[in-house]
Amino acid sequence: MANLAEDLIAFILADGTVSATTTNVHYNQTPSNKSTPYIFIQQSGREVTRCLDGAIGPENYDYIVEATAENINAAKDLADDLLTLLDGHTGTMAGTTVAYVFAEDLGDDIVSRQDFGEAEDFHVSGINLRIGKDAR
Amino acid sequence: MAAGLFGNAVVLSMDEDDNAAYTTIGEVISISPPGQEYAMVDFTVLGDTVQNQFPSPVMNAPEWSFTLLLDRTETEQPAIDSIVGDSTYHSWRIDFPWASVDTCDFEACVNSVSYGDVTSDGRLEATYTLVNNTVNTWS
Fold first, then answer.
1. N or C end of chain B: which has fewer CB within 10 A?
2. pLDDT tens digits, residue range B77-136?
3. B57: cis peptide before it, omega within 30°?
4. pTM, whole model, 2 decimals?
5. What is the DSSP string of A44-63?
């Protein structure tokens, strides 16, 4: 069974609009010779309701999703496509059924990379993602 | 050597139809067990410089509550709802995870149910409040 992060990545890649812009989705680590634009995803937390009998109740998963490109407009356009795809989604997400996906615009940033001895700045438009899983 | 226990694995059960068979209640996320409090009778008289109180042998009716994940597919939850406000004291039990003296029995009526706020990313839950007419019996 795929974990939620794998299903999130599969769901993003299955979207025609996003995949027309990039199919580079990196989880937790970006390769040094990556090509842009790309999407970086990292889990930032998990909140679980625990019943007294040990059963797991509703779970909230939090992710940071960063749309990264060589200029800010390309990064923001990719972030907008991700917001359109993810925010408010409910139901099937690849192999997982989710109660909801809520996405909030996180803000812009710049990441500096120095690959092959050459410094380069990339623009980042970030999204906070919260995914709820319950008994449905 | 460790001392004390977590609340994990504490079991709440009830005998809502009074047939001496307890039904375990599932999806419970918290319990505030019934305590024991005795009224203090005031016998202060004129001339006293300090309020005088005497501990009454009569225990106040303990009020207690538990909260569970609201789930209408759980059979116990409609069963609990059916005894809310039925003006009857039923048998309740809390089993603690000690090796001995781990069962607490008492008689209680369910006098209210309330629901937590319903929000998009919040869990659905219900809280039941009960009032006892017996002292806790440990065994």
1. N
2. 999 999 999 999 999 999 999 988 899 999 999 999 999 999 999 999 999 999 999 989
3. no
4. 0.85
5. EEEEEEE-TTS-EEEEEEEE
Contacts of B120 in chain A (CB under 8 A): 100, 102
Asked whether the beta carbons of A101 and A129 are under 8 A apart, the reply is yes
Give me the half-sphere count of Cα atoms (radius 13 Å) on the Cβ side of residue B16: 18
B31 neighbourhood in chain A, CB within 8 Å: 52
Q: Residue written as tokens 């615009």?
A: A105
- List A128's β-bridge partners, or say none: A64, A104
ipTM, two decimals: 0.84
Tell me how crowded residue B83 is: count the other CB atoms within 10 A of its CB.
Answer: 19
